[in-house]
Design goal:
Elements (H helix, E strand, L loop, with lengths): L1 H6 L6 E8 L4 E7 L4 E2 L6 E2 L2 E14 L2 E13 L9 E3 L14 H14 L2 H9 L6 H9 L11 E10 L3 E8 L4 E7 L4 H9 L5 E4 L3 H10 L4 E4 L1 H18 L1 H9 L25 H22 L2 H25 L4 H8 L3 H9 L20 H9 L5 H9 L7 H12 L22 H9 L7 H13 L1 H17 L7 H9 L4 H12 L1 H7 L7 H16 L6 H10 L2
Parallel strand pairs: 2-6, 8-11, 11-12
Antiparallel strand pairs: 1-2, 3-4, 5-6, 6-7, 8-9, 9-10
């Protein structure tokens, strides 16, 4: 009980009259004992009591029990004859506000829960913490929070965010010096940003992407501020230029990446048959040699037409045939079964099997093992004839017929029945493996923009081949590498000098990129020297999206603005 007394709010002018506990709640009776009260309208103190009344408010829980405060407070008469309010209720500053049903500290706890979780999730947590409240109350507390006073910002970051992607957008303003959200504004046409900047004349630096509306708004709203283009967006635009060039030169790029270096390989000598007119009938030795050459040529042609898997099967079948002939030859020489088994490396049962068969047994007879689906062939054929192709649908259908087969068995059966082309028929298995396709222009552009020390060996080999493939492409890549080094502070080169080189290059994509930089030359030049960037803004945009998605589409602009600005 003494611990509970220590947890009750300490408010001057209130006296604890009684305290009792129930199995579910603790109730404290508090009586107002202050001799006077101040009129909230005119500020005149009064000691003329008009009447008493009772009110019950909720307080923070203690020992897993909610606490209710039953207050007996008074009404006073205002002694100022000019005050329009004749009767007023005494206020309890530090404990609760006028007309409140909960104490200030409980409201603060609800406010923190609402900022962190929103309405529905916050209400569930508050119920678990013995501070029950409704989701609407939490949202109302969030939206009624006054703006926090802050010093005038000097370094501001600007970026857009999607309220509904492709349809509605907003603008996010960040204090780069303190890493806090200044405000979120509707639209991204720059009008709201221009008005906001006019209301904050102390802004010295504005970081932004290359969106023209933000550049114009910064110029008109804060002409005294220095604009800094975002370095990440500059590298992104550079990568897009490289991708466009590689896409346009796709033919030489593909040739450079797919051609193999010449390797000296001894070509097999071709058999030469001399003679004039009709070929004479060869002798037995000559005929044997000619037939051997023909067999070798046919075998080579067959091997070239087979896939690697089929070549392995042919080699295994050839080894089996040789063992079969070896077993029968040793038996004809009079060796016993055990001696043959040791000589060939087979078991005695396999030796007996080879001797009992008239031809070499084939290890792959082509017969399918019986399955649990054999008895359901008719409904499966009907399902395939109707266009069914999803094995999961067939498995559910067969389950209604009490088929014991599992999903994997059904999937293998459908795959074997349809074949690799999706049409009925067995798999042929005679297609050659396709060569690896060369990397796309997009993948090459990302490999190019990556730092040299971060590139894979294969990526560096691609870029080396591209530089050796075409002189014009080599110039583009070298110029783009120079600009990337300037943005990353690895190369100290004046921007104007680089723009002059780019504008004189015989590449339409690079010239267009240089002309765009020329229009925003001051902001781009500042990006190469200033330490500020839009990185913190991008992080706050991700945080804003997380908060918006937590509220499952119920995030109105006012509520979202309150949570983003105050939920730190």
């Amino acid at each position: 009980m003494s611990f509970l007394l220590d947890t009750l709010p300490q408010c001057p002018g209130l006296r604890l009259d009684d305290l009792f506990l129930t199995p579910t709640i603790a109730v404290a009776l508090l009586v107002s004992s202050s001799p006077t009260a101040t009129c909230p309208r005119c500020g005149t103190p009064s000691d003329r009591i008009h009447s008493h009344y009772r009110r019950t408010v909720a307080d923070l829980p203690c020992h897993d029990r909610p606490i209710a405060l039953r207050l007996r407070v008074r009404r006073f008469r205002c002694t100022n004859p000019t005050c329009p309010r004749r009767i007023f209720c005494e206020r309890l500053p530090g404990l609760l506000t006028a007309h409140a049903r909960s104490t200030d500290r409980l409201s603060a706890a609800h406010h923190a829960i609402g900022l962190a979780l929103g309405g529905e999730a916050g209400s569930r947590l508050a119920q678990h913490l013995d501070m029950p409240t409704s989701p609407d109350t939490l949202l109302r507390r969030i939206k009624s929070t006054p703006d926090e006073p802050a010093s005038p910002p000097r370094y501001v970051g600007v970026d857009d965010w999607a309220i509904r992607k492709g349809q509605r957008y907003g603008t996010l303003l960040i204090d780069l010096e303190r890493g806090r959200v200044l405000d979120i504004l509707p639209g991204r046409d720059g009008e709201a940003v221009k008005l906001w900047l006019r209301d904050h004349p102390g802004v010295e630096i504005i970081t932004r992407d290359r969106w023209a509306a933000y550049a114009q708004a910064a110029t008109e709203g804060a002409p005294q501020a220095k604009q800094v283009a975002d370095r990440w967006h500059l590298l992104k635009n550079l990568r897009e230029v490289v991708e466009q060039v590689l896409t346009r030169l796709s033919a030489p790029v593909r040739t450079a990446l797919t051609e193999q270096p010449a390797v000296g390989v001894a070509q097999p000598s071709q058999p030469i048959v001399e003679g004039s007119g009709e070929c004479p009938v060869p002798t037995s030795v000559a005929a044997t040699e000619v037939l051997a050459h023909r067999v070798d040529a046919q075998t080579t042609a067959v091997k070239e037409s087979l896939s690697l898997r089929e070549q392995a099967r042919q080699a295994k079948r050839q080894r089996r045939a040789e063992r079969y002939q070896r077993v029968r030859q040793l038996r004809s020489e009079g060796l016993s079964l055990s001696q043959i088994a040791r000589a060939v490396g087979l078991s005695k049962n396999w030796v007996i099997h080879y001797l009992q068969t008239e031809r070499c047994p084939d290890g792959n007879t082509g017969r399918q093992a019986p399955t649990q689906l054999d008895g359901y062939a008719s409904p499966i054929e009907e399902w395939l004839a109707q266009g069914g192709r999803v094995a999961a649908d067939l498995h559910r259908k067969l389950a209604t017929m009490d088929c014991p087969a599992g999903y994997d068995a059904v999937r293998r059966y459908v795959s074997r029945r349809l074949g690799s082309t999706g049409r009925p028929g067995p798999r042929t298995g005679d297609c050659k493996p396709l060569p690896l396709a060369p990397p796309s222009a997009r993948k090459l552009s990302f490999a190019f923009l990556r730092r040299v020390e971060d590139r894979e060996v294969e990526e560096q080999a691609w870029l080396d081949r591209l530089r050796c493939a075409d002189a014009g492409l080599r110039e583009v890549l070298e110029l783009a590498a120079e600009f990337a080094g300037m943005v990353r502070r690895q190369l100290a080169l004046p921007l104007g000098q680089w723009l002059a080189k780019a504008e004189g290059l015989d590449c339409a994509e690079v010239r267009k990129f240089a002309s765009g930089l020329r229009l925003d030359e001051a902001a781009v030049a500042a990006a190469l020297t200033e330490r500020w960037s839009n990185g913190p803004v991008e992080g706050q945009v991700n945080r804003l999206k997380t908060i918006k998605r937590q509220m499952y589409g119920r995030a109105g602009f006012e509520l979202l603005r309150a949570r983003v600005r105050h939920a730190d």
